Amino acid sequence: MSRIHLVDPTEASGEAKELLDAVQNQLGSTPNFLRALASSPPALAGVLEFNSHLARGRLDAATRERIALAVSESNGCEYCVSAHSALAAGAGLNSDEIDAARRGGSADKQADAAVKFARALLDHQGDVTTGEIDAVRAVGYGDAEIVEIIALVGMNVLTNFLGKAGRIDVDFPKIALLAEPVAVG
Q1: CB atoms closer than 10 angstroms to residue 108
Q2: What is the pLDDT of residues 141-159, one digit of tens each?
């Protein structure tokens, strides 16, 4: 059971209601994670707006989902792994690519570099090497993509922490965390 109250969209009022109604209209549902965030309308608005801005960035949806999966698995957030597995499938990733992302990689060379850089950021708390930056540049990413990867890692850490601290009830097809630790490659 969730440790943070899940705001019922039918009983919400004010800014929380407006935001949850917008989510319902856009997604056709209101995921439990966003219902938990609605306990603080400013937090919900901030997450929704940040996500919206990142979606308009240079990284495609599949790469953004790969990064979310790598970070969520590394942080041990079952809610986020479950949610992003469903979102990744919707972004066109097959089960092999979803599994690879959860393990910190990809069969696609450019996506692999992005995911590995995201994991390096997470694993080294942002203190990456010049070589790790150069590896991302070597596959064609520039400063805009590097900044977006950093932003995505930060966003996913925030959501992972809320998912774990709040023990948010999984309302996506539940995906168990990997049994073995995910090694940095």
Answers
A1: 17
A2: 999 999 999 999 999 999 9
Q: Is 61-165 in CATH node 3.40.190.10? A: no
Please state the length of the chain. 185
Q: What are phi and psi of 41, to 5 degrees?
A: -50, -40
CA dihedral sign, ordered 146, 148, 154, 157: negative
For the chain, what are the domain ranges? 14-55, 61-165
Residues 6+ apart with CB under 8 A from 99: none
Query: Nearest 5°: phi and psi at 176?
Result: -70, 150
Q: Given the structure tokens 């479950």, which residue do they identify?
A: 82
Q: What is the largest CA-CA distance in the chain?
A: 52
Give the pLDDT of residue 179.
Answer: 85
Look up tokens 């965030």; give the residue: 37
